[in-house]
Amino acid sequence: MKKIIIYLCALFSFNYIAISAETGGMPQLNPEFWFSQIFWLTITFGILFIILSKFILPKIRNNLEIRKSQIMENIEIADNQKTKSEKNLKEYDKIILDAKNNAKKTFNLAKEKIQLDLSKEREKIESELNSEIQDTENEIKDLKKSSPEKISLIAIDTAAEIIQKLIGAEVNKGNVSTIVNEQVKLMKDK
Amino acid sequence: MAANPMYQFNVYRIGPEIKIGEVDISFTNASLFMVISTLAILIVFNLGAKKKSLIPDKIQLISELSYSFISKMISDTAGAKAKPYFAFIFSLFMFVLFCNMFGMIPYSFTVTSHIIVTFVLAAFIFIGVTVIGFLKHGLGYLKLFVPSGVPIILLPLIVVIEIISYLSRPISLSVRLFANMMAGHTMMKVFGGFVVSLGLVGGWLPLGFSVALTGLEILVAFLQAYVFAILTCIYLNDALNLHH
After folding, report:
1. Can you give the pTM of this predicted structure?
2. Residues of B in contact with A53 (CB under 8 A)
3. Cβ contact (<8 Å) for A11 and B14?
């Protein structure tokens, strides 16, 4: 490559020196190389035109058209996806709303059930408690009923024993009991 | 080196002399730069067209932007009917642009600074447009020279003026490009010469001018290619959609 450049430079400078010896004027009006220029212009421009129009420009046009259509296609796809995603978003919102409603419903149901259970249990326990209280009260009542008789019996026995110890003789229990009962009655009256 | 600012436009033979009959068609430096420009265009756009990635890289972007730029230019000026001529206008614009741009490299040769080259291009466009016009509209294409809404008294004059303006199209088209390129390159050469002759003491001002001119010339190189292509489109528009 370097060699070619050096060669070209040498060629040009050589020609420059050779020409500079000639007289001035407009070289454009010198017809010596007119036909050569026309000939080479026709050839180079012809080749350029043919290659550009047959091979290169159709390719570029094709590229541009492909790009255009691809861009349009992409825009279309993007639009589709946009509408799709909007639809999905709406569905999603709906699902969330439904889920919220469901959750509320379930919560309420659970609450009610728990309250029901709670009240049932409470009732059950209360009734149990009540019955127990009743039982205990009954027992107490029984005890209350039976206790004076027992007390009088014990009193009779002890009185009889005390008398026996004091006097040293057997006492008729019937008498003692009548006395004790009278005393108990007196006490009750008081 | 040559002090004459016109020496840069000299055409000289590279390699052997080739002759067909009496006609000299030797390979010259002008031919070399035509070939270089053509190859550069083909390489750049072939690389740009090869890749088919959805997100283009730099070289692909260059080719695709050029494609849509010229496509837009044609549809803006000549309408949808001009679509079959897209490849020609694209090649024309790229050829002129690349020739102009390669001419900006120091010690290179500007193909488009030669009247014969630009005139051949313009004449080809002129003939092509005229043929297309007559093919599309038959003799009705001659209505182009008769603008509507013109008083009958003025008509002979107007028609003559229109015909002259139509016939001068290839000349104006070719001279515009050629003169712009030649003038710019001559100016740059002149200022470059000033830098050398004024030396270290006074050379800085023309050097600055040279730098500024280089920027301007690059702009002109693009602009003239654009003007060349857009005028072709306008002429094509006249041939395709007869407005008058």
Report:
1. 0.72
2. 87-88, 91
3. yes
